[in-house]
Amino acid sequence: MTKRSYRKKNTGRKAVAVMGLTALLAAAALGIYAYFMDQNGGENPKDTPLSTPVPERADTGFLVAGPDNYDSADTCLLVEQDEEENTMTFLNLELGRRYTLSVDGTTRFMDKYGDGLSKEQVEPGDIVDITFLKTQKHLTTLQLSTQSWTYTEVERYEINSVRGWVSIGAETYRITSNTQYLSEGRPIEEMDLNPSDILTFQGIGKQVLSVKVEKGHGYLRLENDASFVGGWIEIGQALIQRISEGMLLLVPEGSYQVNISHRGGGGTKEVVIRRNEEVTLDIGDLEVPEPQYGMVLFSMDPAGAQLYIDGSKVDTSGPVSLEYGLHQMIARAEGYQSVTQYIRVGQESAGINVVLDANRTEDSSTDSSLPGSTDTTSGYYKVYVDAPEGVEVYLDGNYMGVTPCNFKKTAGTHVITLRKTGYTTRSYTVQVDEEAKDISYSFADLVAGESSLTDSVLNGMWDNLLQ
Fold it and tell me: Which residues are paired to 78 by β-bridges?
């Protein structure tokens, strides 16, 4: 009994050992199967020999583009976006060099506070902080710079390109070679700006880095205006100017009521001005009646002040006879600030009080807008416009001739407009110096473009063809 018992116990131990070895072999087989499944992308490893070597991972130094991968950073200016190529071009502010980076779905765009933006919310002219992969020329992140400042849609400013500064309110900032000028997302020249344009300025510290045109300008020409030459045109609150033959006016874009007046006649019309387009306004249906006159009595303070009406000095000791309509009035006195304003005469008699403030900085006798005052044109120096050839030239809206041409030099800020049928009209703001010498300008060729003529002009052209 004892022997049998021993054999049973011994047999049980052998069985346990065999079962343990079987389990160990099964686990090993499963491990090998799983390994080959992993190495073969999930394929059945039954045809893969066990002797196949396992490939080693090599470090190539290649970084996959993503929201957290970059090897370079920069504070720069966005100068161009190419939607077709999915690229952005930046200007390095220290070196003044441009470089282009690709953009894709991994690129992150943020505002100054780190909140997300869409790519469409970032515009050329924005100052930005970026990270990127230099080796791949790929933009990783773009954030509106936390160092920059912005003045949005500024109407009152002064740009002095000769001295290189911009005055915005009480602040003055520098213009440098890095300053970029843009209109509708495209680069322009500083001379393309007009004092009537509404601008957005961006910069860092005391330096202006970008100037964007938010609201630009177009052009207005009068047709059938012979009866109104010498009268006045008022375009909303934007412009008041005496009507001259063949004039071409630069007007801020927008919708306006245009008031035409001469000798008590005229009327009002509506016009829409679009950026860089020319509009022709037919005023042939407005009537000019026989002139009517009103008697205006001026009260001057100080009593010895001189008064000019439409450029001519008048005697204010008694009533002044003026035609019905709009007139320019200029009052001046030594030691006082000159007053320039427009008055409208529309009744038989009226009284106007003219009060001059004491001059704070300079003698008003130097006002070059007054007849007989001293200015830099005393020697009759000239401004020459040499190029492009064969285009009409307008100075502050008044026709000067066809290039090459010249006109009298008057110091100050002026707008030179170039026009030719079938080409896009261009205007340039220039600052004429006070030096006693002639100056000349040569501008870029006009670009052929779609005609901006109105129906009235097109009908006239058609009539001419039928004759």
Answer: 90
